[in-house]
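User: Before I run my own analysis I want an independent prediction to cross-check against. Here's the chain; please return only the structure tokens and, at the end, one sentence I can use as a sanity check.
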Amino acid sequence: MPSSLKDTQNERDDRKIAIDRVGVKNLRFPLRIRDRDQSQQHTVATVTMAVDLPHHYKGTHMSRFVEVLHAHGRELTVASIAAMPRELLSRLNARKAHVEMRFPYFRAKRAPVTKAEGLLDYGVVFEVNAEGDEVDYVVTVEVPVATLCPCSKAISERGAHNQRGLVTLSVRFRQPIWIEDLIELVEASASSQLYSVLKRPDEKYVTEAAYDNPVFVEDLVRSVAQKAYGHKQIKWFRVEAENFESIHNHNAWAVIESHNQPALI
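Assistant: Structure tokens:
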């Protein structure tokens, strides 16, 4: 039976201003993700879904975004995320669609000396955009690290300042790539990786390892970029590093995007 209720969203808007993205944000939904270490893990994603809106439409149908989300059952997977933008194009008669899933991802890590085990969380983002028949998929990992300042080490007699930092690595890939592979690529570029459980022998090992491997924020992004350029599955990347400085009232920050090709020697 056709509805007799007024459809205000389909009314005409005469301001002639199109909207780039309109939709729903900060929805939380269960997510099941493949895990290289443990086969799979369950987490909760914060979801953003949007489409473009032509200038002549007053509004979009917000309920249809949620319907598309729930059409995949009570738990999302990578495959269902990848399919959603095209479903939005069809359901909302749009030209462009955007789906973003942000979620915590946990890894069990053993301390370097005592092997005490604890869970460490990383931020992960899946972003999928569709325009016509084209689909663009970007995976982002947010990896906490430790860095030690080379300048401080060079000029100080009794130590060097160090700090935690956050490296954000986004990639487009030729073949699917493990989240763990991206995390390890970043951690191998820092002065030291982080752990959730450290006993005294572990703390000694970590601080001395960082002291032996000082890196500026510039070193950090260059090292990540060098590894990403050499990774066969990565076809584009953007790496951003931010050091939460321990002796300055500011943070140090650097970015490399892969359209900046390595200099020829």
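Sanity check: The helical segments are 62-70, 78-92, 150-155, 179-187, 200-212, 217-229.
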